[in-house]
Amino acid sequence: MATVSDILANKDAHLLTVDSGASVLDATRMMNQYKVGALVITEAGCISGIFTERDVLRRVVGEQRHPADVTVGQVMTRDVICVEPETDLDEVSAIMKTRRIRHVPVCAEGRVLGLVSIGDVNAHYASNQAQTIHFLSEYVYGRC
Q1: Contact present, 78 and 48 (Cβ < 8 Å)
Q2: CB of 121 within 8 A of CB of 10?
Q3: What domains sit in the chain, N to C, each tagged with a CATH number?
Q4: Could you report the per-residue pLDDT of 111-125, keeping only the tens digit for each?
């Protein structure tokens, strides 16, 4: 069965983090620049939160706060759910579905190794499904 490691192996290894004291404006500019939907917030090497597009919409725009005056630490999600690299993708998908989250940090031995999004999981499933369909088609029509 596929694991989180399989996704991380095919992703850019660069993990985007931001300090909790950064302004929401600076953080969203970074998200736009790198075309990502979330940033991991770390303090002393440990995850202290995650800052997502949803945080911007609910806690900044929805509350009519000015992004330059609000820090990431004031609006980030603090209850972060992490998974290990060996976690099965079906389990990650279930976590995302039941907890209604789109991004999950991957951690091992006290370190953040990467970030997996629902888009990463869906792309992996779609790729495997296409490969399976091709293999079965070749098998059924005898083109092996």
Answers
A1: yes
A2: no
A3: 4-140 (3.10.580.10)
A4: 889 999 999 999 888
